[in-house]
From TrEMBL:
GO MF: taste receptor activity
Family: Belongs to the insect chemoreceptor superfamily. Gustatory receptor (GR) family. Gr5a subfamily.
Record keywords, A-Z: Cell membrane, Membrane, Receptor, Transmembrane, Transmembrane helix
One Pfam family cited in the UniProt record for this chain: Trehalose_recp
Identification of the protein by name: Gustatory receptor
Keyword Transmembrane helix in record: yes
Transmembrane annotation, as ranges: 25-48, 60-78, 110-134, 167-196, 242-266, 272-294
Domain of life: Eukaryota
Cell location: Cell membrane
Membrane association type: Multi-pass membrane protein
Any GO BP: sensory perception of sweet taste
Length: 390
């Protein structure tokens, strides 16, 4: 099987190597340095209360710090990428020896999923760029301008008094537009790897479904149990390399939900905030359900194991049942929590409960009109006009 990773074509994935001498690594390091500088600036702004409202600086710091950490961890994952590809290659060969063939070859799956990821990333980047560029238009919703324009406006305000550095402010603003797409790309990589792993479990379960209620030998169940060990080891390897990224993505989703709920207290247009909350929760729910699918599929073979006839029941079947019961096959967040369906239900139950409590006590209705986002839009126009004149 030939893989194409960064232009390298080899049958042996062990020949894949990570190199620091590439434009992608150089660009990532620049983004990391810019992110660290911006986080330091916003942290100082919180201490000296430069912006008057420390929640704004905290929100900016949050939306830059986590993507910056994600880039650092992604570089670490890129260094161990040959190991991950080797594990997938080994599982693919194991599936082939068991006569379990997928509908699409592994290489084609990677191409299709990466193409979808790149398309969504380009679409998101284009959307954020367009909104940031046209946010001064009168036809634009002021709440949209508030949400998407804070980073660019603050950078321009930071550098507008310094002569001859407008290009510097604009370049920093262009780099900051990249930050909203970083977490999306990291989520896409995680979804691709976990989806392929889940597909392996589904193929394994289909193989077992063919022998349900049939007489089988102990040799067959020993091979099945060893194959299950291989799949479990693949999940453990993925968790070892990706658990920090999963933790950062989940933390970013929770923080994003918190700040959207906080917008209920400061924005008069609750319909827009409710729509934004639905988008955030839907995106987080999709990611968590994909992550939890590994644990769900790893338990589906129990129905087949319980249906083994008496004349085929042996020690290998018993060991297989114990292993499926007591071995936790799931993706975790830095081993602080395991993502399964129970975890997903608990998270959404808590979010919906506190959202309904906020509406029940009438917090939104009491605080409507306290902050007017139209004032910020006027400030946005003024800052951009002064910048263009200078």
């Amino acid at each position: 099987m030939k893989l194409k990773v960064l232009g390298i074509r080899h049958c042996d994935s062990s020949k894949l190597k990570f190199t620091w001498k590439s434009m992608t690594t150089f660009y990532s390091l620049i983004i990391v340095l810019v992110g660290i500088g911006l986080c330091c600036h916003y942290f100082i702004a919180i201490i000296i209360k430069e912006n008057g409202n420390p929640m704004d600086s905290l929100r900016r710091n949050f939306f830059i710090l986590l993507p910056t950490l994600s880039i650092v961890i992604s570089i670490r994952v890129a260094r161990s990428w040959p190991t991950l590809i080797y594990q997938f290659e080994r599982i693919e060969r194991k599936m082939y020896t068991l006569s379990i063939k997928s509908h699409l070859p592994f290489k084609l799956k990677i191409y299709i999923l990466l193409s979808i990821l790149i398309y969504l990333s380009i679409l998101t980047y284009f959307y954020v760029s367009v909104v940031s560029l046209i946010k001064t238009c009168d036809a634009l919703n002021p709440h949209m301008a508030t949400v998407y324009g804070l980073q660019v406006v603050h950078l321009i305000k930071l550098n507008i008094e310094l002569p001859g550095v407008t290009w510097y402010a604009m370049s920093l603003a262009a780099i900051c537009i990249v930050f909203p797409t970083i977490i999306i790309q990291v989520e896409g990589i995680l979804i691709i790897l976990i989806s392929i792993t889940t597909q392996y479990f589904k193929q394994f379960n289909k193989k077992l479904e063919l022998v349900k209620f049939r007489k089988t030998s102990s040799y067959f169940w020993r091979n099945m149990r060893e194959s299950y060990n291989e799949l479990s080891h693949l999940v453990i390897t993925l968790d070892q390399h990706l658990c920090i990224l999963v933790f950062l993505v989940v933390s970013f989703s929770f923080g994003n939900t918190f700040f959207v709920l906080y917008m209920f207290l400061t924005y008069p247009d609750s319909k827009y905030v409710l729509f934004l909350l639905c988008i955030v929760l839907g995106k987080m729910g999709f990611f968590l359900v994909i992550m939890a699918s590994v644990n769900y599929e790893s338990k589906q073979m129990l129905s087949v194991l319980y249906s083994v006839p008496n004349n085929s029941y042996n020690i290998e079947v018993e060991r297989f049942i114990r292993q499926v019961h007591f071995q936790k096959v799931a993706i975790s967040g830095c081993r602080l929590f395991n993502i399964d369906r129970e975890f997903v239900v608990t998270v959404f139950e808590s979010i919906i409960t506190y959202t309904l409590i906020a509406f029940q006590f009438g917090i939104v209705s009491d605080l409507k009109g306290r902050n007017n986002p139209s004032d910020l839009c006027i400030e946005v126009k003024k800052v951009f006009n002064d910048t263009l004149k200078s």
